[in-house]
Amino acid sequence: CGTALVYDSGSRLITVDN
Protein backbone atom coordinates (compact mmCIF):
# COMPACT_ATOMS: atom_id res chain seq x y z
CA CYS A 1 0.00 0.00 0.00
CA GLY A 2 1.11 3.52 -0.68
CA THR A 3 1.26 6.00 -3.53
CA ALA A 4 2.55 5.42 -7.03
CA LEU A 5 3.48 7.74 -9.88
CA VAL A 6 1.83 6.73 -13.13
CA TYR A 7 1.36 8.24 -16.57
CA ASP A 8 -2.18 8.91 -17.69
CA SER A 9 -3.34 8.74 -21.30
CA GLY A 10 -2.01 12.24 -21.92
CA SER A 11 1.49 11.36 -20.65
CA ARG A 12 1.05 13.50 -17.54
CA LEU A 13 2.40 12.22 -14.25
CA ILE A 14 -0.28 11.62 -11.66
CA THR A 15 -0.30 9.97 -8.24
CA VAL A 16 -2.58 7.11 -7.28
CA ASP A 17 -3.15 5.22 -4.06
CA ASN A 18 -2.68 1.49 -4.39
Describe this structure in words.
It contains no helices and 2 strands. It is mainly β. A hairpin with a 5-residue loop joins β1 and β2.
What series of H and E elements makes up the topology? EE
Q: Which stretches are poorly predicted, pLDDT < 50 over at least 5 residues?
A: none
β content, as a range?
Answer: over 45%
Q: Which structural class best describes the helix and strand composition?
A: mainly beta
Shape: elongated
Cα-based radius of gyration, to the nearest Å = 8 Å
Number of strands: 2
From the N-terminal CA to the C-terminal CA, the straight-line distance is: 5 Å
Largest sheet: 2 strands, antiparallel
Helical content class:
under 10%
Compute the number of helices: 0
Short description:
The chain has 18 residues and is an all-beta fold. The protein has no helices and 2 strands.
